[in-house]
Amino acid sequence: MRPYKQIIEEAGTLLREFASDSNPDELHWHRDYHDRKVTIIESGGWKIQFDNEMPKLMSEGDNYFIQAGQWHRVIKGTGKLTLRIQEMKDEKVYITKSQLIDLVREAKDQNKDGENDFDDVKIARMLASGMTKEEIKKKHPDLFKEYKDSGGNPVQYGAPPGSKRAKQLQQTRDDLARAKKLRKDGKTKQAKELEQRAYKRRDRMEEKERQKKESVRMTETQLRKFIREVLTEKLSKKTKATLKKKAEKRGLTPGSVYKEFQKGLAAYATSGSRKGMSAHQWAHARVNSATPSKSWAVVKKSKAKKKKK
């Protein structure tokens, strides 16, 4: 027996209702045969969870695009849940800009080893149970091994020895090292030209990788425009405001967070990155993982009280 009631509103559209006394044991992980657009009509504290992700609270008016074959489940709240399901068989998919940004920025590789495997599933389950990533690392250090290939690049960079990508990353490092020496020798103009060449090479590399992943079914013009806005984000007032908010929330000084971000931008060129990531995405990831206790981090604790959520 199904844990819900539903009616067919029209071809391809269902109205589904889960009662407030639904049995949680009947709300299984599952996947669908077709892409679906789900609109929340009413939610009494119910949540939705996708594979390798934390549960998200559903609210009236929320829209979710669920790809065919994507594992997911709903988690019981205190009231009832009513939603409208539209199957997207061979139609154009319409999603909001924020949803597209989430898709572009989504990272399911929990332990950053370059693979989406069962270790990531284990970590996701422990995060869902309430454990923090630091607690999981302490209890299960074997799940967070950093794997490097024989060429010295972390495997998540996708640059195996001898590959074109590995050679380009090494060329960038060499160019920046040469530029540093030129600056010491007083040859600023030559150093600047070499640095620009290195940074442009890195941008071209990741732009090609991003283009390979453009699989959302929208018009090409719309997709390129949205992704470009996300991946070429500039260090604007908006970015600074975001960094300041992160600093206040985590009890860090804004100045040290800005500096950490700048170090992330520099590391993007000198050390490489995961495939398809922009310099700003890499820098944001560095800020998110930086703490005063980590030897590589420059963030500092603030004397001001941490801002409450």
Describe the structure.
With 309 residues, this protein is α+β, with helices and mostly antiparallel strands. The protein has 3 domains: 5-91, Jelly Rolls (Sandwich), CATH 2.60.120; 103-147, no CATH class; 148-289, no CATH class. It has helices at 97-105, 118-128, 133-139, 164-184, 188-212, 220-231, 237-250, 254-271, 279-289, and strands spanning 5-10, 13-18, 35-43, 47-50, 56-57, 63-66, 72-75, 81-88. The strands form 2 sheets. The protein has a 5-stranded antiparallel beta sheet with strand order 1-2-8-3-6, with no helix packed on it. It has a 3-stranded antiparallel beta sheet with strand order 5-4-7, with no helix packed on it. Residues 103-107 have low confidence and may be disordered.
Distance between the termini: 41 Å
Strand content: 5-15%
Element string (H = helix, E = strand): EEEEEEEEHHHHHHHHH
Mean pLDDT: 78
User: Which assembly state applies to the chains in this document?
Assistant: single chain
Number of domains: 3
Question: How many beta-strand segments?
Answer: 8
| Tally of individual helices | 9
Structural class by SSE content: alpha+beta
Radius of gyration: 23 Å
Shape: elongated
- Note the main sheet: 5 strands, antiparallel
What helical percentage do the residues reach? 40-55%
Query: For the largest beta sheet, what order do the strands appear in spatially?
Result: 1-2-8-3-6
pLDDT under 50 segments (min length 5)?
A: 103-107
